[in-house]
Amino acid sequence: MSTSESVMENAIAEGLATVLHNILLKISGTLQPFPNHRKEDREVALEKATEPSHHRDFILAEVHHLFKVRLYITQDVDFITHKPASVHDVHAYKHEDGLTPDENTIAFDLSQNYSSPWNAFLLELLLQELQSCCREENWPIKKSDNYIREILRDCYKCLHTIWRNAQPKVAATGHLEMPARRVDRRPTIAIWQWLGHLIRTLGKHGMSSEESAVENGVENVLCGLCPLHRIHATKNPTTKQDAVKGLLLALYDGAWIASLTEWQKESLEISTAPFPWMKVAVV
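Now predict its structure.
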């Protein structure tokens, strides 16, 4: 095959990929042109455009779990205590005369973004760990390295932003604003993330209806940054809706569960997996 024929085939293949991408995005109503970046960027864009939403949710959950396990955090806001890599180690590695980052204790270079040599090494390490876990556990959903690499980079950017926002800032007086004076800025992210997790876990059928007066003991809901006190009635009116099946045990009313027979409990298909409740204090 001549060089001109090879070039022509590559051009046709890329053109077909672009056309397919546009057709798929037209169907979903979100037509956007391919970004004019590298070939792998286009491949990831096509991979995301053709996948069911639950595929991405699965991979996102696994990536977030990996970050939490390797960074020894339970929620993203805990990253504000992350101990960054030393300037000396980062400088030595960058100039090819120092050791590689410690693979057992992840320490990012928080002065740089994900593309720095130090951080890129650590993200590639996490990528290989996740793909290895995928193979060993035979996950039902598998993704390309470039696909997962993009998610890892996005996670780092999110954590880096949380860490940076928690650092002291220069106040109007010219002095450093100490973290104690900025306590109201940091918890907001974690609170909203937890509330989002709660809503997703409950699902659309697990929400409290207008008929219910007691809502699983949650006495405050956040509206913007202001807590609104929820007034509880002394008794619940009788609901006309069937009980939702398959929720976590922690999300059912304890007194109501205790009143059920064993057969009724079994019919609910209750999950005994733990749920991380959060106590929110507004100061």
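The radius of gyration is 25 Å.
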